[in-house]
Design a protein that fits this description.
By secondary structure, the protein is mainly β. The chain has two domains: 88 residues, no CATH class; 136 residues, Immunoglobulins (Immunoglobulin-like). 7% of the residues lie in helices and 41% in strands. Helix 1 links the parallel strand 4 and strand 5. The chain is elongated and about 100 Å long.
Length: 249
């Protein structure tokens, strides 16, 4: 025999939470504007012949699916309860997923904090990690340009920009200094320190970044609250005393 088909119209309305009768579907299978969920699903059954003298057999095709309308979002749980006994899949608000997490500023702040920023490189002059007591030892770094990284958060493209905002110089003798200046090579001495005693010191540089972000490929830049600090590895420096030597008249 030829296949047969029938149409199932499922109407779940705001009356799910009361004892009022449900509205009837219109001619095209949709419900009135007050309907909570309506879906017209074609359910086909195939009838095949059995053995001689026996009744025909039927095989059911794919199970019907239920799709919620736009007015169902506010009562999604009620719809779930109403169709929980069904074996067919249930789809809420076609084109959207009510349980899809929303990207928040906290997500972006966390991504900024976890951004793989480079380890600061500290340059000391005089070179070779040796300086003189009571001498202006020069410190600087080449890490001055903003860094841009693109990440995907909850399916959205987010560009994060990290801009150096502060440099903390630890000199190893108990003194430290924070500047907005990255320093500069000799002879432009902008960040210097004098060691009063000879010895070996462990110097270090940490860079603090301000963050900003934008969504998509051309959105406006927005500030990220908070800062991120990246510390470099300690670097040894030996301070020695200069010994005057008489070389003659």
């Amino acid at each position: 025999m030829t296949p047969m088909s029938f149409v199932v119209a499922v109407i779940l309305t705001t009356q799910l939470l009361s004892n009022d009768p449900w509205p009837s579907p219109t001619a095209n299978g949709t419900a009135s504007s007050g309907s909570l969920i309506v879906e017209v699903t074609e359910h086909a059954t195939h009838t095949g012949g059995g053995s001689a003298g026996s009744a025909p057999t039927q095989q059911e095709s794919d199970a019907p699916s239920f799709s919620a309308g736009a007015n169902a979002c506010a009562a999604a749980q009620a719809v779930v309860n109403a169709v929980s006994a069904a074996t067919a899949p249930v789809t809420f608000c076609p084109g959207t997923t009510p349980t899809q997490p929303t990207l928040t500023l906290a997500d972006i702040r966390r991504a900024f904090a976890e951004l793989p920023l480079p380890t600061p490189t500290l340059v000391i002059q005089p070179p070779d990690s040796v300086t003189l007591v009571n001498f202006d030892t020069n410190f600087y770094t080449a890490h001055t340009a903003p860094l841009t990284r693109t990440v995907t958060l909850l399916g959205q493209r987010v560009t994060i920009r990290a801009t150096p905002a502060a440099y903390t110089w630890t000199y190893g003798d108990g003194a430290a200094r924070t500047t907005a200046d990255p320093g500069a090579p000799y002879p432009d001495l902008r960040v210097t320190h004098r060691y009063e005693r000879k010895g070996v010191y462990r110097t270090r540089l940490a860079i603090t970044y301000d963050g900003s972000y934008r969504l998509g490929r051309g959105g406006p830049w927005r500030a990220i609250p908070g800062r991120v600090t990246v510390a470099g590895a300690p670097q040894g420096l030996r301070a020695v005393e200069a010994t005057p030597t008489l070389v003659g008249y």
